[in-house]
């Protein structure tokens, strides 16, 4: 009724539009990466890193924290877990916006096609963050913000198309399905 048309004129007058996802690309050079084996989730001393170590490392990389453990750094003395390898070039693509699950599946399928070409990567990751203050996290349960509003999952896909799925939620949230 009248209320709807008033709202419509308000939105058009203020030029409020659907936000298109924002895409940014960056190249990380000489990046220290953990060595992973798809069948070793716990990692093996001197052979591969665990899923937890990878998750922590990924958090540091995505937040652009230095990995060189300098004692003079006030921000972080974090260093890449052992064993690790230096990758000459790593590509980081960030897409920010409201993205439907079908698009995420499409992205994952496209990323898997990357291994069809003669590339040197042994694995790749796709991390999906929900908004920290999202009203719903998993299933149909309310999302408790509390401290950090954790609400994310991460795919690690290997060259043989094995994959790991890691999920993180806040303390008071329902576990993912």
Structure description:
One of its GO terms (biological process) is endonucleolytic cleavage in ITS1 to separate SSU-rRNA from 5.8S rRNA and LSU-rRNA from tricistronic rRNA transcript (SSU-rRNA, 5.8S rRNA, LSU-rRNA). This is Ribonuclease P protein subunit p40. GO terms for molecular function: ribonuclease MRP activity; ribonuclease P activity. It comes from Chlamydotis macqueenii. With 177 residues, the chain is α+β, with helices and mostly antiparallel strands. The protein has 2 domains: 21-97, no CATH class; 98-176, no CATH class. The protein is 21% helix and 27% strand. The protein has helices at 2-13, 51-62, 101-113, and strands at 22-34, 84-96, 123-129, 151-158, 163-169. The longest helix has 13 residues, at 101-113. It is globular. It starts with a helix and ends in an 8-residue tail after the last strand. The model has no long low-confidence stretch (mean pLDDT 79).
């Amino acid at each position: 009724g009248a209320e709807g048309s008033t709202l419509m004129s308000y939105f058009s007058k203020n030029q409020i539009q659907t936000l298109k996802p924002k895409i940014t690309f960056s190249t990380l050079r000489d990046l220290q990466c953990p060595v992973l084996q798809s069948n070793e989730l716990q990692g093996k001393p001197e052979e591969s890193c665990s899923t937890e170590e990878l998750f922590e490392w990924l958090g540091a990389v995505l937040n652009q924290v230095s990995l060189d453990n300098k004692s003079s750094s006030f921000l972080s003395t974090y260093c890449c877990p052992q064993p690790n390898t230096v990758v000459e070039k790593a590509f980081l693509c960030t897409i920010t916006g409201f993205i439907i699950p079908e698009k995420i599946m499409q992205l994952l399928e496209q990323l898997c096609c990357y291994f069809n070409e003669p590339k040197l990567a042994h694995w790749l990751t796709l991390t999906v963050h929900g908004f920290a203050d999202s009203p719903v996290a998993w299933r149909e349960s309310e999302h408790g913000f509390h401290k950090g509003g954790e609400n994310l999952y991460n795919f690690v896909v290997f060259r043989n198309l094995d994959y790991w799925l890691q999920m993180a939620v806040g303390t008071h949230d329902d576990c993912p399905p």
